[in-house]
Amino acid sequence: KFDGKYYIECEGGAKPFVEEDSISQYTGFKDKNGKEIYEGDIVKDERGNTWIVFFDTDFGMWMIHTGKKQGALFANDMYYEVIGNDYEAQKVG
To answer: What is the pLDDT along the chain (93 residues), one digit of tens a residue?
Structure first.
């Protein structure tokens, strides 16, 4: 953060501006296609249900929720596919 704005430092000195709400933490997990899963990602399970990834500070672990239900996200769970992220969905919706 510099001068009230957020930037990403890149090789070669480039520092593109990013919106604060779009900054997400990597969970350390990958989906069934090998794509990295980040906080705020929207994932779809094998049954077609969609979930949003978040970090639950009470449990100290990565979780997923639908708004009605929630569950844990595990490293060996190749059950999910990243289909977007909550930040982009909010901009569209």
So the answer is: 567 766 566 667 655 555 555 556 788 889 999 999 988 899 998 889 899 998 888 888 888 888 888 888 876 556 899 999 877 655 444
| 63 phi, psi to nearest 5 deg | -130, 170
Output the CA–CA distances (angstroms, integers) from residue 89 to 4, 28, 52, 68, in the order listed: 25, 23, 11, 18
Annotate 11-29 with DSSP letters as a single string. Answer: GGG---EE-GGG---EEEE
Could you give the 3-state DSSP secondary structure of residue 88? helix
Burial of 8 (0-12, 13-18, 19+ CB in 10 A): exposed
User: How open is the CA angle 57-58-59, to the nearest 5 degrees?
Assistant: 90
CA-based nearest residue to 33, from 75, 80, 74, 72: 80
